[in-house]
């Protein structure tokens, strides 16, 4: 594996202000969400809003380099959307990590692009395709066939949209936690009621599931040995034991690991 590695995920809400501006709506804020959802259904047959209208409320990441692991989040608890983006994008100015995501090439990175442009930010370290650094002509974060950004949903489907899978399903299948709780999407409620720890824990959970699937994918491809894979899994377990906000993730992982032959010994029996 090429270090450093940054596995990441974003959480978003519909940007009501921009939506009202785009569609010329003069409505009370309480009515905007429903109006924009209706317009979107008329446009595309789905409530899923166009990418440029996804306002980022949290970016979480799991970092691995020569010095160890770090789980982090930038959320609206402490930062505006512009500040969240500045902090995340500054990572690429300092280092050029291997970027790992689930559906990041179709959602997370394009949303970051639109929202960074909305706030007038510059991010050549992430979006340069060879104009500044000639090496990025052949290996950049945008090209789906390059490995500077590994979108696991895309590569595991062999770049065929008919084969796309849900992160939750693959995580469960492989013996990892997947999404905990009732599986519903509670991000708008978390933000409205200022449940910031629940928001970051949710986003970090997706990051951790993606990281564990990435390790399995690296094992499949022969990029790491079985002994390296086991060491990294155990290091992740040990690290998460120091992260109180991920106690539930670790507990669910311990139970789910019993369901497959390959993962049943990830947790020593004394900790079951």
UniProtKB/TrEMBL annotation:
GO molecular function: exonuclease activity; nucleic acid binding
Alphabetically ordered keywords of this record: Exonuclease, Hydrolase, Nuclease
Keyword Nuclease appears in the UniProt entry: yes
Domain Predicted 3'-5' exonuclease PolB-like span(s) in chain numbering: 46-253
The keyword GTP-binding belongs to this UniProt entry's keyword annotation: no
CDD domains documented for this protein: DNA_polB_like1_exo
Alphabetical list of SUPFAM superfamilies matching this protein: Ribonuclease H-like
Domain of life: Bacteria
A Pfam match: DNA_pol_B_exo2
InterPro entries in the cross-refs: 3'-5'_exonuclease_PolB-like, RNaseH-like_sf, RNaseH_sf
Protein name: 3'-5' exonuclease
């Amino acid at each position: 594996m090429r270090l450093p590695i940054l596995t990441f995920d974003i959480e978003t809400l519909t940007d009501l202000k921009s939506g009202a501006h785009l569609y010329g709506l003069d409505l009370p804020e309480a009515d905007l969400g429903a109006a924009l959802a209706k317009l979107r259904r008329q446009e595309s047959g789905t409530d899923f809003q166009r990418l440029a209208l996804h306002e980022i409320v949290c970016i979480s990441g799991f970092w691995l380099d020569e010095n160890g692991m770090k789980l982090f989040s930038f959320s609206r608890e402490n930062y505006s959307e512009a500040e969240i983006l500045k902090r995340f994008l500054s990572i690429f100015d300092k280092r050029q990590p291997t970027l790992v995501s689930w559906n990041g090439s179709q959602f997370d990175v394009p949303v970051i692009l639109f929202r960074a442009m909305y706030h007038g930010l510059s991010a050549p370290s992430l979006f340069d395709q060879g104009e500044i650094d000639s090496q990025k002509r052949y290996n950049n974060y945008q090209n789906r066939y390059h490995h500077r950004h590994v979108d696991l949903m895309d590569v595991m489907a062999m770049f065929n949209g008919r084969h796309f899978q849900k992160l939750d399903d693959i995580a469960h299948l492989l013996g990892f936690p997947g999404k905990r709780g009732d599986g519903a999407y509670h991000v708008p409620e978390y933000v409205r009621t200022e449940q910031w720890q629940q928001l970051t824990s949710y986003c970090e959970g997706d990051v951790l599931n993606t990281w564990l699937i990435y390790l399995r994918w690296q094992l499949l491809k022969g990029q790491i040995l079985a002994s390296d894979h086991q060491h990294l899994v155990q290091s992740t377990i040990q690290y998460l034991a120091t992260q109180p906000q991920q106690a539930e993730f670790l507990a669910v992982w311990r139970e789910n690991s019993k369901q497959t032959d390959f993962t049943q010994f990830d947790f020593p029996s004394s900790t079951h």
